[in-house]
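Regression test case RT-17, inverse folding.

Input:
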């Protein structure tokens, strides 16, 4: 008997990945909304918090998120208005600027993060055995690096390095 073309493990893998991502995203969005932060704002804040000196060039921040450069500008504008992020110009390149997490941004993340980590543990990482999680992280990095090689851009570049150029 021939396998039906729609009974392909590749389609199943993509479908399961999409369903898991959509479910996790919905739960995270609800949790973050209770703190007055959207999922995309959280993504920007957590990427800044995890970057050297809590800053990234705007172009690198756009590359690491799902946003265009104009989209990241709008998100950073909103976060800047609420005092969670500020911009810092690159002294040697007028075309570049950095988004920098402020003390208020760091405090907001400290408020939001415990509940977010509980959600991740409950609905994602806590459902997997340690070896399953390690394998998944390795596999996701392989896929991410293939489809979004720019996603790690600027992780080590800081305003002080910009000034040294």
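Golden output:
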């Amino acid at each position: 008997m021939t396998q039906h073309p729609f009974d392909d493990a590749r389609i199943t893998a993509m479908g399961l990945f999409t369903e898991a991502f959509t479910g996790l995203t919905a739960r995270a969005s609800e949790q973050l909304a209770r703190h007055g932060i959207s999922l995309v704002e959280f993504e920007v804040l957590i990427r800044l918090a995890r970057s050297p000196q809590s800053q990234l060039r705007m172009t690198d921040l756009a590359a690491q998120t799902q946003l265009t450069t104009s989209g990241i500008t709008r998100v950073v504008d909103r976060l800047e208005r609420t005092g969670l992020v500020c911009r810092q110009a690159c002294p040697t390149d007028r075309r570049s600027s950095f988004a920098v997490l402020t003390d208020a941004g760091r405090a907001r993340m400290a408020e939001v993060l415990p509940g977010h980590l509980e959600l991740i543990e409950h609905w994602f990482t806590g459902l997997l055995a340690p070896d399953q999680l390690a394998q998944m992280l390795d596999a996701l990095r392989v896929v991410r690096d293939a489809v979004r090689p720019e996603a790690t851009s600027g992780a080590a570049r800081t305003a002080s390095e910009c000034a040294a150029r």
